[in-house]
Amino acid sequence: MEPTTTLIYDGSFNGFLTAIFIAFDEKIDVADIQKNNQSQSGLFSDTETVFTNVEKAERVWNGIRNKSHNAISNIYFAFLSEAEGVELMLYTYIQKLMRAQNGKYLDYSDSTVVYIGQLAKKVGREKHRMETFVQFQLSKDDIYFANIEPDFDVLPLISKHFRGCYADQQWLIYDVKRKYGIFYNLDHVEMVSLNLKDIHHNKTVKSDAFAPNQTLWNDYFKSTNVASYINPKLHTQHIPKRNWKYLGEKREAV
Q1: Taking the chain, what is the end-to-end CA distance rounded to the nearest angstrom?
Q2: Strand pairing report for 189-192 and 180-184
Q3: Residues contacting residue 216 through CB under 8 Å, at least 6 positions apart
Q4: Cβ-Cβ contacts under 8 Å for 60 (sequence gap 6 or more)
Q5: 3-state per-residue secondary structure call for 124-142
Q6: What is the 3-state secondary structure (H, E, C) of 77-102?
Q7: Rounded mean pLDDT of 123-137?
Q8: What pLDDT, in 10s, does the model give residues 190-203?
Q9: What is the pLDDT of residues 46-82, one digit of tens each?
Q10: What is the CA radius of gyration of the chain?
């Protein structure tokens, strides 16, 4: 019996693509692909930690894109679903894609292909829901703020929409579940993180931290200090900007 391996990655999309590269390059019999903060050792598999390598990630991205533009969108959207076990399903999906003959499409009756397509559609619907229903409130610093709790990690997908709609205003949309946000400073969009431990938001209750008449907002978000909250490491959770042009939803996102 050939040994199987569970690949452990950092939770970023680049990290996931690096894991795919390692699996193909080393011809690994993959038992699972898991985030490092959620990993569980299998009884009959070894583990290998994958260190994110942007060049390797880009090679996988470009290889998939060259096979199918539709597939690269499905893969990215499905990854953002954060569904349990989605990494292994995506690995299987990519295997099937790479084995497909030139000029042929994936078998859309295949259960894996159907599942990934369904996940991608759910994320797409959540993207449009956020674009439609996000509501801003104006702070004393003239920054329009909205906090959201989407079902999926759609912040990278809605940036372009809000930049187009509110190009003449500073705004920030913060995902309280995933603890990061996107901030537009009238020039470009940056990913930001906050150290607010008492952030809370649901359909009926809002934390005072978000009320525009509270001094807490000024303490944490003076417009002159917004740059201090920019966390470049957050960008590694998503595709490098030079590749965003290949996804219509992310084109010109930042």
Answers
A1: 49
A2: antiparallel
A3: 208, 209
A4: 17, 18, 20, 21, 24, 94
A5: HHHHHHHHHHCCCEECCCC
A6: HHHHCCCCCHHHHHHHHHHHHHHCCC
A7: 94
A8: 989 876 554 444 44
A9: 899 999 999 999 999 999 999 888 899 999 999 999 9
A10: 20
